[in-house]
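Data availability (excerpt). The following record was deposited with the supplementary files.
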Amino acid sequence: MCAPVVVLTPNLCGQDGISRLARLVTGSFDEVTVLALHEPASVTRFGRAGVRGAGGHASRFVASALRCAVSADRSTRVIVTHLQLAPAALAFAVRGAPLTTMLCGVEAWRRVSRPQRAALERAARLIAISRYTRDGFQKANPRFAAGAVDVCHLGIEPLTDVEGVPAEPPSALIVGRMAADERYKGHDALLEIWAEVSAAVAGASLRIVGDGDDRARLEHKAASLTRDGLVTFLGRLDEDALQREYQRCTAFVMPSRDEGFGFVFVEAMRAARACVGSHGAAAEIIADGETGLLVESDNRAQLLQAVVRLLRDRPAAAAMGACGHVRFLQQFTEARFRDRFTALLPVVS
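Predicted structure:
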């Protein structure tokens, strides 16, 4: 038997955005069964959730969904956290269970396949993690342009202690994967302006958290464009070390053009740090001129001006960070997500 709530997700226990979304969703219910494509079969519990891991085997995942669907009915809530898994939920729809499918960014901005379209047409709710994601989905899939796609911004747990203005020399932080197929995040743009930033703001440094197959290229580029010590690659960090990086920076900067949401901006605001982001999903998180600054992703001059402004005027950056922390507590905590999300779910009989 499956629980009254069934969540279909690629991952649950990882640090990627989809895993974090899956944990937010499962944490909204007291009793839930998670069907996780990439989790090993040895993972059977996660918090209050029962887990059925498929070990990366699509056929095993589908078989697990079919077995679970046998006991489903109109009182079973089914939530899919990734568009590509939506067809596996069709067996639940046949049993009358209302389906909710989450739209999460890049994969939602492409034309859906025929099986995905069939699943989405059977869904009782489509929920996007940002207006930017919703608009991209409807543009790529005009068939759904007239239909309702709700928006539910994500959230994270608050900190117990938030530090004030850091004593460190002025620095900017960027956190994100360095992957050859994700060069839209803005690492290149930051490296290309950093010599000018450091000339305008004495001692200004850029700290880069993350890893990936593009890191070596970026390190070589940094060495060719900047002096030693101005740019530091920190690699992948655990949660405590990452939080220390947020606390030590003057501002968080990620001029990404294609974020579906942007957990990192929320993490920076949680730490009371001003943010620089691009128009897009980041504009739904950052209040321009109040909690940070928005720039056009391909406008080098705007990016340079925004970074220099925050690193040069640290009291102003701290004031924006304080406003950002208030906005975080009002809009982007896990509790606020749960309230929004559960209010959007279809009523079960």
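Summary of structural features: The chain is about 40% helix and 15% strand.
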